[in-house]
Specification:
alpha/beta; Rossmann fold; Protein-Tyrosine Phosphatase, Chain A; 6-stranded parallel beta sheet; 6-stranded mixed beta sheet; 17 helices; 19 strands; about 20% strand; globular
């Protein structure tokens, strides 16, 4: 019997696959009151899966001890009782991506890092497609990887979170990509060391013929890359001849061959350049071409809620970077602008927001929002003016009042969204609505 913990999209995908393979599956759902649960329960029951709702400790322990394998959903952290029970009983614990990896029939490109995963995953798949290589993007980007392994494609490109990688004792992608490392999800992992250890599973089980693409500009990433059992190649926005790098306005390979030029990119911000280099380095090894990379990069647009311009009024730009759910992402975003009114805050994931003071030279003022408003306020006290807003409507009004012509009002929260919103997309959409309403009101009174 295989025990699947959680019946969100990942748990259902695992159940479907394992039942199709003839396994006996039992699913545990600890929160049977969440939206959409009834449909999820009915779906897996129709497959013959026994569903156990909200078991007490003794019932869960008995289920674990009667299992040959436990497959936790990404939200199940390693201090959860089911993990402790499995370890005590000697029952293996494997994530969905670990199961998917051994079932994949084509090369897998696995992309992870604190920030930029979705962008690099999407761009890597686009480069492959532009090169005439059939590719699917899956994983943390939205579609479970175990659902994609039967697709009629040549390459699978998988976005991988630290949650998924934590329980991946065999996962070995043909190409692993490690973009960057900064404090994130410490409330889930418990420590920076545990977080980094999970990320390292992206390359830890590779063989000598596989490839690790790593960020030479991130000191910790470069240190970890030394331990890879596979080949390794770096990318950097600095001059470095043994890496994918920038030379005289060109993005080039380690051998000096041109991929594209900065002028041909829609944005040549440092993080956009780094993402383009990482994506190209990852897929050239699995069939992509430099011409395909040039075409894809030239037409690639930033994804929603990632430093996305959404409006302008009175010489002030409004930019949605709601996807910035940790300080590292916010530092990168703010540094791209000269003068910013920053809207930051939300649900702090146990991270030190004090590091945000590093971008004070770029800030005119800060508007603090959400449960972490006090943390944001403390981070900037005495450095720049800070006001607290009680809603997104209030935040946009206050930010607009503080901004001057030439400034950028930037929603880059450095925190998760789960205090006011269901996810970062909903938060970004709310910001965009309030900005649109503000601009419309100003136009009516002009």
């Amino acid at each position: 019997m295989i025990l699947v913990v959680g019946l969100a999209a990942t748990g259902r995908a695992v159940a479907r696959r394992l039942v199709r393979e003839g396994a006996t599956v039992v699913a545990v759902e600890e929160h049977p009151d969440h939206p959409g649960y009834d449909e999820a329960r009915d779906e897996v029951r129709a497959l013959g899966v026994r569903v156990v709702e909200a078991p007490d400790d003794d019932a869960l322990r008995a289920l674990v001890r009667g299992s040959a394998l436990v497959v936790p959903s990404p939200g199940v952290h390693d201090r959860h009782r089911v993990i402790a029970d499995a370890e005590e009983a000697g029952v293996p614990v494997r994530s969905e991506i670990d199961l998917a990896g051994e079932r994949a029939r084509v090369p897998v490109v696995g992309v992870t890092g604190t920030n930029g995963k979705t962008t690099v995953t999407t761009l890597a798949a686009a480069i492959l497609s532009a090169s005439g290589v059939r590719a699917t993007a899956a994983g943390n980007i939205g579609r479970p990887l175990i659902d994609a392994v039967d697709d009629d494609v040549d390459v699978l490109v998988a976005e991988l979170s630290s949650f998924q990688l934590r329980f991946a004792p065999t996962f070995a992608p043909r190409v692993a990509v490690l973009l960057n490392l900064a404090d994130d999800h410490l409330d889930w992992h418990g420590s920076r060391a545990a977080y980094e250890d999970a990320k390292a599973n992206v390359y830890r089980h590779q063989s000598a013929g596989d490839l690790l693409v790593f960020n030479a500009d991130d000191q910790r990433v470069a240190e970890l890359a030394r331990a890879t059992p596979s080949r390794a190649v770096a990318f950097t926005t600095r001059a470095r001849s043994d890496a994918f790098h920038v030379d005289g306005g060109r993005l080039v390979t380690p051998s000096g061959e041109t991929i594209t030029t900065l002028d041909a990119m829609r944005s040549d911000a440092p993080h956009d350049v780094a993402n383009a280099l990482a994506a190209t380095a990852a897929v050239l090894d699995v069939g992509a071409t430099r011409d395909g990379a040039a075409r894809a990069i030239a037409t690639f647009e930033r994804l929603h809620h990632r430093v996305e311009p959404i409006g302008q009024s009175g010489g002030v730009r409004f930019v949605d970077d709601s996807k910035a759910t940790n300080p590292h992402a916010t530092l990168t975003a703010v540094a791209a602008f000269d003068s910013v009114v920053l809207v930051a805050g939300g649900h702090n994931k146990g991270l030190d927001l004090g590091v945000l003071r590093d971008v004070v030279p770029h800030l005119r003022a800060v508007v603090a929002i959400g449960d972490a408003a006090a943390d944001v306020e403390r981070a900037f006290t005495g450095a720049v003016p800070v006001v607290v807003a009680a809603s997104m409507h209030d935040a946009v009004d206050r930010a607009a009042a503080l901004a001057q012509p030439g400034d950028t009002v930037l929603l880059s929260p450095a925190c998760a969204s789960f205090d006011w919103y269901h996810d970062y997309g909903e938060r970004g959409d709310d910001f965009a609505r309030e900005v649109a309403a503000l601009i419309a009101a100003k136009e009516q009174t002009a």
